[in-house]
């Protein structure tokens, strides 16, 4: 069997998003808008040893880029110690996606442990708008966290843009990015699990984002060389670069080299997958590494996911799942599968 499997559309597996917790200290309206959530049971959450073994197996299948995510990953106790164990595997890159609330506290330990770069999700620099979206009052902590990691290599700010909610924040976010040496990426609002308030009318599309920016700055130039990255990059006339992740209006499934693992070890080969593969069961059995590798290879070789492209074909598009279904199947939630 080929050690580096390709899926049915010839896509290799290069990148893994590892969720280390489903808990979160914010309640972003596009991700966790409900008042009550069911959580993964603690005894089902993978230990650091299990996570490291798993990432090592994915590495043998071709994964060289790892992104630690959640929920809010900085809520996982002793995260720097996990990063240290993962760094010993010798991957090309270990990145973190965080809401930034606890970043000031942990960034030094994380970078010393071997973290290579950070993406901070921030949708507004206006306190009222930040509160309106996140349903929490932590903007100053996020800004302090960003300041603490300013100009670190590969620093990014990811912003989900919603029409009539934070479309007025595009320019202030770009200004913040310029100040702290971060590339801003605007993300189209997606109809993923958890986004129970999603409506097509609330999506600010890539074309609309570019239109708003061109009104202010003049001609915006697209940059070449996207590869399998989710963001299309652009340059403003003053040289500042930024990205747009247009998963809703211009999906990029044909280049998708990503798999996701939830904190309790469900493998999802697409953000829109309805079912996963239970890796925890395999890790906690007496199967050898070789046995598990073979199962992972078979799973990836049989993959034919192109969830976002299929969503595009739905005429009357609404949320992927209703609140009731999410209550019953927490693995459908974006905060469980890691975004
Ligand atoms: N809590 C961390 C954070 O917010 O950065 C990590 C997990 S979060 C699920 C990962 C990313 O998913 C964030 O950048 C978030 O903005 C994005 N996200 C969540 N729901 C989304 C939605 N409905 N549409 C687009 N992006 C979404
Ligand atoms: Fe917001 Fe991330 Fe928490 Fe979802 S997981 S509510 S995107 S901070
Ligand atoms: Fe990949 Fe699925 Fe996202 Fe398409 S929708 S880019 S296949 S994760």
CATH class: Alpha Beta
Q: Strand sequence of the main sheet, in spatial order?
A: 7-8-9-6-5-4-3-2-1-10-11-12
C-alpha Rg, in Å? 19 Å
CA-CA gap between termini: 31 Å
* Known CATH architecture: Alpha-Beta Barrel
**How many strand segments?**
12
pLDDT averaged over residues? 97
Number of domains: 1
User: What ligand species are in this complex?
Assistant: S-adenosylmethionine, iron/sulfur cluster
CATH superfamily: Aldolase class I
Summarize the structure in short.
With 339 residues, the protein is an alpha/beta fold.
Explain what you see.
This protein has 339 residues and is α/β, with parallel strands linked by helices. The chain has a single domain, classed as Alpha-Beta Barrel (TIM Barrel), CATH 3.20.20.70. The protein contains twelve helices and twelve strands. The protein has helices at 48-60, 79-87, 103-113, 127-134, 139-148, 170-180, 206-217, 279-283, 289-301, 307-312, 323-328, 334-337; strands at 15-19, 65-69, 93-98, 117-121, 156-161, 183-188, 221-222, 232-235, 241-245, 258-261, 266-268, 277-278. Strands 7-8-9-6-5-4-3-2-1-10-11-12 form a twelve-stranded mixed β-sheet. A hairpin with a 4-residue loop joins strand 10 and strand 11 (266-268). Helix 1 (48-60) runs parallel beside helix 2 (79-87), helix 2 packs parallel to helix 3 and helix 3 (103-113) packs parallel to helix 5 (139-148). Bound molecules: S-adenosylmethionine and iron/sulfur cluster (SF4) (2 copies). Residues 24, 26-28, 31-32, 70-72, 99, 121, 335 line the site of one iron/sulfur cluster.
């Amino acid at each position: 069997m080929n050690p580096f499997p390709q899926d049915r559309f010839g896509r290799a597996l290069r990148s893994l998003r590892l969720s280390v917790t489903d808990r979160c200290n914010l309640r972003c309206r596009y991700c966790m808008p409900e008042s009550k959530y069911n959580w993964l049971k603690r005894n089902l959450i993978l230990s650091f040893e299990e996570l490291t073994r798993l990432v090592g197996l994915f590495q043998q299948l071709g994964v060289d880029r790892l992104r630690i995510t959640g929920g809010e990953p900085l809520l996982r106790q002793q995260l720097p110690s996990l990063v240290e164990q993962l760094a010993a595997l010798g991957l090309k890159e270990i990145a973190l996606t965080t809401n930034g609330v606890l970043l000031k506290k942990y960034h030094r330990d994380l970078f010393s442990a071997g973290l290579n770069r950070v993406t901070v999700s921030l949708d507004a620099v206006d306190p009222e708008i930040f509160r309106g979206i996140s349903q929490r009052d932590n903007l100053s902590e996020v800004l302090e966290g960003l300041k603490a990691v300013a100009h670190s290599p590969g620093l990014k700010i990811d912003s989900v843009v919603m029409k009539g909610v934070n479309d007025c924040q595009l320019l202030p976010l770009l200004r913040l990015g310029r100040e702290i040496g971060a590339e801003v990426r605007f993300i189209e609002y997606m109809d993923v699990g958890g986004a129970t308030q999603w409506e097509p009318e609330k999506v600010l599309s890539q074309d609309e984002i570019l239109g708003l920016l061109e009104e202010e700055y003049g001609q915006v130039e697209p940059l070449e060389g996207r590869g399998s990255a989710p963001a299309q990059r652009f340059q403003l006339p003053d040289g500042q670069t930024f990205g747009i992740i247009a998963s809703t209006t211009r999906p990029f499934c044909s280049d998708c080299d990503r798999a996701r693992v939830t904190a309790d070890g469900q493998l999802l080969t697409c953000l829109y997958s309805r079912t996963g593969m239970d890796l925890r069961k395999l890790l906690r059995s007496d199967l050898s590494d070789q046995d598990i590798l073979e199962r992972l290879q078979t799973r990836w070789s049989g993959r034919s996911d192109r969830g976002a492209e299929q969503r595009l074909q739905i005429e009357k598009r609404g949320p992927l799942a209703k609140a009731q279904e999410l209550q019953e199947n927490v693995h459908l939630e974006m905060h469980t599968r890691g975004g």
